[in-house]
């Protein structure tokens, strides 16, 4: 899994200066919490549903091998094939092998972050196959040679005029209408992709859930592209992570209720599909070959560790939509297919901390991610876990390490701590004008470069406490 | 060691408890919400309409051809109707509606109006449920521009849990159908800004005839 997460600081600064991106992210920040909340309010007591969902995920993860083997057996009984891939390269090899056996020249795909994680498109293209993304957002960024900036809305960062320009540049000119309105762009994409759907040799989709009880694969979309991808070609390949299995249909129903509401404020997505194996002998259509590729790629290493709870994730993106850091810098700054709070935990787990440093620090610890998570993943706790590992491995900048050492010493001696703090409180008050501090000297300058700070009281809390407590005693 | 064995071994090493079994479905702690007593159909229709489906309540199934003709004329959808291979629909008296040109099958309906039956509907989410079979190829739900669905009043179920129970009964001892599709209104995308735009890859219109 390739990341550019080490450039987080630089990319975040660029993103902050990008006015177009700010508008798109402003919409996320303004709209998503409102529609999510009203959708969750349709459930009586949503918190109780969160409890059930996280308990169901925990139960699954505690017995993951049992459910995966049961799922495998059911798929085989239905006439499908299950493949296990330890890492991204193995998964790509397996998929390319299936495509080559099918004699595939054109492969259609529906949106799958796991295939982004393993960089499947580049791999198949290197084997002379044409890969066509069919989710509209993924299609747009594929044409533009970009990576997703949001797991649910991968082209969030692209403006409508950029979409029009992209279609003009890549589509047959005769077909290209003026494309001023979103509906015209939609019709244009629909027409071009319709031909691709009908001519594809292999369709590749992800999975939202795998149902151990029946061997069913659950796929959710609003566009209907996954269904055309899964049903029209003669071979359908599902690629997904090993953690996506759920025990029964009841567990799937529980997740579906929370997924659509948390993700897009919908009661249920437009299309929720359960696929069971290849076409039946009597069916007149549907793929004759059905494959499921189960990807590990670092997931099993998280089991039994403090990161296990991250595997509960159902990829709803609520944490992303509610994150003050994500809604300020957008997804590309994270340099990973998984962005926002869930990405800051998952990316170091999958790609290694060395490739993802900075991400665990891209948090204000405000805790909204944990509050909105429908499966109650304690994201701040896990970010703290990664920060501890960073510190242990001496990956934290020297200034921070020395600073923390100094802070520890100071805290160990109350007298020094109190007197230094008293001096600082008075100094800061002296630096302020009209109730605000806009410029700090020395290392403090980096802080005030982007922010102002309200004038402190001029006295420490302890000082004030002594005074007020004294007064309280008198009365 | 194969990757399968390696992955399963890693998972087993990470967990402490003894081998488990898939628990019976009633053990997952789902307590379906109390649905408003009685009017499941009313609830379904309200939610389906909220998701931009249109609904026409008819008397008997015999009224379907005339209702289809009326709908297609109102919406300006021309007079070409694709009937799936489903005999339930094929056997209706389409001849009596002179304005409609019905074809039994279209391999790749595009820009067409298709009519199909359905398996069930789920009241608490406004979803139609269709199940693939030789009588109902799955692409009929996704390729046409307009999808007309005939729903019987007695097919409306309260929630997912009732749907799973019914599927388990109907497919006991047989393989499950390849596709079970839950459909809530027309196809849409949010990739071209808020609010979502209708008519992405699937049908841009979903019209439900209740009989």
What do these coordinates show?
The complex is a heterodimer of chains A (475) and B (211). Chain A is 52% helix and 11% strand. In chain A, helix 2 packs across helix 12, helix 3 crosses helix 12 and helix 16 crosses helix 19. Among the domains of chain A are: 39-300, NagB/RpiA/CoA transferase-like (Rossmann fold); 413-474, no CATH class. Chain A is an alpha/beta fold. Chain A has a six-stranded parallel beta sheet, with helices on both faces. Chain A has helices spanning 8-16, 19-40, 46-62, 64-77, 88-101, 113-117, 120-126, 136-144, 160-170, 182-199, 225-231, 249-264, 299-302, 318-321, 326-329, 340-351, 353-356, 368-372, 379-392, 398-412, 414-431, 445-448, 461-474; strands at 81-85, 106-109, 130-133, 202-205, 209-211, 216-221, 235-241, 245-246, 271-275, 289-295, 436-437, 453-454. The model of chain A has no long low-confidence stretch (mean pLDDT 93). The termini of chain B are far apart. In chain B, strand 10 (188-189) and strand 11 (197-198) form a beta hairpin. Mean pLDDT of chain B is 89; it is low at 24-31. In chain B, strands 1-12-7-4-2-3 form a six-stranded parallel beta sheet, with helices on both faces. Chain B has a four-stranded mixed beta sheet with strand order 8-5-6-9. Chain B is built from five helices and twelve strands. Chain B has helices at residues 3-14, 40-50, 64-75, 87-90, 160-170, and strands spanning 54-57, 80-83, 101-103, 113-117, 120-122, 127-131, 146-151, 156-157, 179-183, 188-189, 197-198, 205-210. With 211 residues, chain B is α/β, with parallel strands linked by helices. Chain B has one domain (36-188, 196-210): NagB/RpiA/CoA transferase-like (Rossmann fold, 3-Layer(aba) Sandwich). Chains A and B meet through helix 3, helix 4, helix 8, helix 10 and helix 11 of A and helix 1, helix 5, strand 9 and strand 10 of B. Strand 9 (271-275) of chain A pairs antiparallel with strand 9 of chain B, so a sheet runs across the interface.
